[in-house]
Amino acid sequence: MCHEGEHQVTPRDAFPERTCIGCGAKRPKQHLKRLCLSSEGTGLFDKTRTGTGRGAYLCGAGCLRAAVQRKALARAFRGRMRAVDVSALEADLATTS
Questions:
Q1: 40-54 mean pLDDT
Q2: Is pLDDT at 9 greater than 60 in this prediction?
Q3: How many domains does the chain have?
């Protein structure tokens, strides 16, 4: 029971949650990989998670393939993403893990 003015912090409140665009799972932000756009409109993984602009979050390589198949990348970046080089993104994802 909370008294007036008190707020109990639960683990869910402690970390911001993001949704994976591949599988739809909601997870803490630090457990997902952030994909952002370069100035040329190609996707790259934001290793610091502090890049500017829109970002999309993925659990891993399987979710990357699912997001491409579902055309979720185009929706996440509002059509600003040019061509998607899945093999390059998978290689980049392997180095960020």
A1: 86
A2: no
A3: 1
